[in-house]
């Protein structure tokens, strides 16, 4: 597997020869490129905050990154085992020039990555990312003389600061949560959520917490992407009864999935919908944002509350940009990513938990009844593999022309609207494939729409051939 380079950073599998995966040489090169870019920014600070999830290579990668940054003359504050949103919040709190999160998020344990933040604690832009990549390719690094090496410090307590900031939010009602005496099961896939989520729950007044896969060993107990097929263990615990809710986070705690008291999946798409409904009701309305591949249910609850919904291109940095443009009160992505700007502009499972539990407590409902109160949509997720010589951009252009009579959005691939149904086609940045997502109020219709579009694509390819 070669390195995957995206807006937010560099990722790959650990181990193997140079040129295949994320090697120690790659870690040093890209850390040096990022540090060199930071030094060109108009900031008086020379501090970089770093933190990591619990994956097996994390300690090694962290030490390489810290030493490289010190070699450039930059100071490093290491949060150690932490969460992505905690690092994001620490950057501006410490007046740092930037931050690096060492996590491959939902990827399996052999993966790791450097996720790059600006001085606001937000992911760097596409333009900035291209500058970092160009610096890495040129390897034109100016390391500091021995008398000007950067300093290295640690901070093991910033998670507590993060949690205290969540508790201080006006829409988080600790007394309401405590009064409901929730009984909660937590699956943290043996990573940082194993200590972060229980610490938050205890601070919220939850006293019954069943910990499942909460030892932060980095040896993931199951595939770390919080999809239903990977969450059979927690579902079985809830099916036996005695608990009100299941909480699942990915290794770096920026995605939140919920499980109902009966073991049924709440649905990652509906994590944002539920939290947004609560926020909109509490504020008397407001605007929301999600990406083009997320459920229409967010638009429904937003418009019902008198607000406006906007769609952004896929990717957290794009969602954040659109949220700022529209002054959205909440936003995120359909993968369980909650972005609540009252706290910070980053996906944050911890604030999502606090807001959801407040919503659940005030509603007086069970999790399953709350889920049933929302519009039900189904998303069919598919992909079509293309040979490298096929021009995927042209395929998307031809699809746009075929459906020109329908409302079409082209900010990220092609999204075609059919009344309350839609199909979104977008090419992968790393593979010769087109992803086809379709949504409808029934599984069969969503699948039919997706297969209809796949058939159209095959016709276009056949004509071209």
In short:
The chain is of the alpha/beta class and 465 residues long. The chain has helices spanning 24-39, 58-71, 84-93, 126-138, 158-167, 174-180, 193-203, 232-239, 268-283, 297-304, 316-326, 349-363, 367-372, 392-402, 443-464, and strands at residues 4-6, 9-13, 47-52, 75-81, 98-102, 111-117, 152-154, 183-187, 208-212, 245-249, 256-259, 288-291, 309-312, 330-333, 337-339, 378-385, 408-409, 414-418, 421-427, 433-440.
What can you see in these coordinates?
Keywords: Isomerase, Magnesium, Metal-binding, Phosphoprotein. GO terms for molecular function: phosphoglucosamine mutase activity. Its EC number is 5.4.2.10. This protein is of the alpha/beta class and 465 residues long. The protein has helices at 24-39, 58-71, 84-93, 126-138, 158-167, 174-180, 193-203, 232-239, 268-283, 297-304, 316-326, 349-363, 367-372, 392-402, 443-464; strands spanning 4-6, 9-13, 47-52, 75-81, 98-102, 111-117, 152-154, 183-187, 208-212, 245-249, 256-259, 288-291, 309-312, 330-333, 337-339, 378-385, 408-409, 414-418, 421-427, 433-440. The chain is built from 15 helices and 20 strands. The two termini are 30 Å apart. β19 and β20 form a beta hairpin. The longest helix is centred in the C-terminal third of the chain and has 22 residues, at 443-464.
